[in-house]
Amino acid sequence: MMEMGVPDYGGGPVGRAPHRTLDALQAPDRAPDALFTLTAAMGYQVVGGLRQQVMTFNGSTPGPTLRATQGDLVEVRLTNQDVTRGVTIHWHGVDLVGSQDGVAGVTQNAVLPGEEFVYRFVVPDAGTYWYHAHQDSVREVRMGLIGALVIQPSPSDAFVESAPTSDLLALVHTYGTVTTLNGAAGSTYVPVVAGTTRVRFVNSNNGPALVSATQPFIVAAIDGFDIPGGTMLSNSYVDVPAGGRIDLLVTVSSQNTRVGLLSGPSLVIGPDGSGAAPELSSSARFDALTYGTPGGSAQALSALGPPQRNFTYRIGSRSGFLNGRAGTWFTINGKIIPKVPIFMVRDGDVVRFTIVNRTPFLVHPMHLHGHHALVVSRNGQPATGAPWWVDSLEVLPGETYEIVLKADNPGAWMFHCHNLPHARAGLVTHMMYEGIHSRYLIGRVTNRLTNQPE
Ligand code: C2O
Ligand code: CU
Which of 11, 40, 421, 449 could share a disulfide with 87, CB 3.0–4.6 Å? Predict the structure, then answer.
């Protein structure tokens, strides 16, 4: 791992922690509450009328929606039938135990054809998450090794009283040139009763998904975490970053409501049984920086306390050599892999990152594994609404974000752009807990096995 970068201690103490292996960080040894089997395989699927070569979980893409309850111990048996370069599963947005993160060459070896791997982890938070291959992910995610993971609040949670009448998934994925919701192009009719419908958008693409509804809606959650006190929005659209999730609460009347991507696929939801609904058209871009209970964000920040480490994650690009190949590569704080900073933290630290996008035309949906971070400011403007917790934060050209998190989940955690071709072009590093060592390697391991997370 260390040959992946240069330790950056962010102004905090330099670690002298005893060595621990990542493999030692395991879920509790008890019987699972939720048990799943996922088999990865090559296949064909008709998407938008076109027969395409895809990669499937349990015979379809997207794979099955996995459902569990907050606090459950989830066990997933992954089998690779015939995906030649191997497969792993990363549980995107789940703040899970360090050894189960599913990154080839960091937390495990890729699972080759005929092999299997069992994931065991507790799901600490309710909300909308997803899973995807993190071996050769540029190709395997694009070809369909994806699925949704929905964690219901535990029944003892007092807040379930506000549960909506209907709960739908809207997983965005583009197969070839066909953009789909839950694998379907165009409009899909979904019967729901009048009332409030929760629509869980998951963006598995490399670029932003702009979503909206023809009825007023509330933004109820971002990246799995609830946004309390959100006001009703009309004529608005929400930008779901690549890798991100947004839950909308849509008010469905006796007429049909369309909810989906602006000029893209949509769900027509309503009680009347016909497919007709108005087209989506929205003008105002939703801004989470000022949305929800006023002052909530400042409160969450003071609850975290002052940071012990301050890091800069400045994204640029320049030409040079990466793994001996000449090209234009992304830089982090001016450096190309393997000279990029590795952000070193200690269990219990409060950590601040200043993320700066210095690439003129490129959007970077920045994803940190294993943690949620609180958005503190954008371009110096403080967050004033409800706490905005993210694992996937879209940083537009020229923007600067400040985020703060509690480092309370030991491991070796990727922090990369979720426009996966950008990650492959060098926009990837790690947040590393001092003393933690991985025994896996990125690159060629044996004649059969090459770990290549992107
Ligand atoms: Cu959704 Cu490192 O990935
Ligand atoms: Cu990027």
Answer: 40
